[in-house]
Amino acid sequence: MATQTEAQNELAELIVTSLNLESVKAADIDPEAPLFGGDLGLDSIDALEIALAVSKRYGFQLKSDNPDNRTIFTSLRTLSEHIEQHRAAA
Q1: What would be the CATH architecture of the domain defined by 6-89?
Q2: pLDDT tens-place string over residues 32-44
Q3: What whole-number distance in Å separates Cα of residue 79 and Cα of residue 8?
Q4: CA-wise closest residue to 47 among 31, 27, 71
Q5: Which of 4, 25, 28, 58 is deepest in the core (most CB within 10 A)?
Q6: How far apart (Å, rounded) are the C-alpha atoms in residues 58 and 21?
Q7: Pick from 84, 83, 87, 70: which is nearest to 34 by CA?
Q8: Which backbone phi and psi does 12 adopt, to 5 degrees?
Q9: How far apart are alpha carbons 71 and 81 in whole angstroms?
Q10: What is the pTM of this model?
Q11: Taking the domains of the chain in order of start, what are their residue ranges?
């Protein structure tokens, strides 16, 4: 498992908290592992919950009609990178 960066760990904590993933520790989420269809068992409703939590925490919206969403939500790493890019611009 790859090591999480500080930003990835913060995001992992947000995901675990916002989705009430009681059996998952944020530090155990592999930044390279798929967020959906993988060990976390997340689905499209979870993506909406994550998008809402990101909006509240980081002050920008992940739009549902963004054609890059599949890439953005690929893994903890890709989502974290997207947040860092847009957070800096916000």
Answers
A1: Orthogonal Bundle (1.10)
A2: 999 998 889 899 9
A3: 9
A4: 71
A5: 4
A6: 21
A7: 70
A8: -60, -40
A9: 11
A10: 0.91
A11: 6-89
Which amino acid is it at 73?
F
- Collapse the DSSP code of 42 into the 3-class scheme (helix H, G, I; strand E, B; otherwise coil) and give the result: strand
Query: Residue 85 belongs to what H/E stretch?
Result: helix 76-89
Cβ atoms of 75 and 35 within 8 Å: the answer is: yes
For 3-34, the pLDDT digits (tens) are 999 999 999 999 999 999 999 999 999 999 99
Between CA 20 and CA 53 the distance in angstroms is 12
pLDDT of the residue at 18: 97
35-90 confidence digits (pLDDT tens): 998 889 899 999 999 999 999 999 999 988 999 999 999 999 999 999 999 986 55
Nearest residue to 42 via CA among 69, 75, 81, 80 = 75
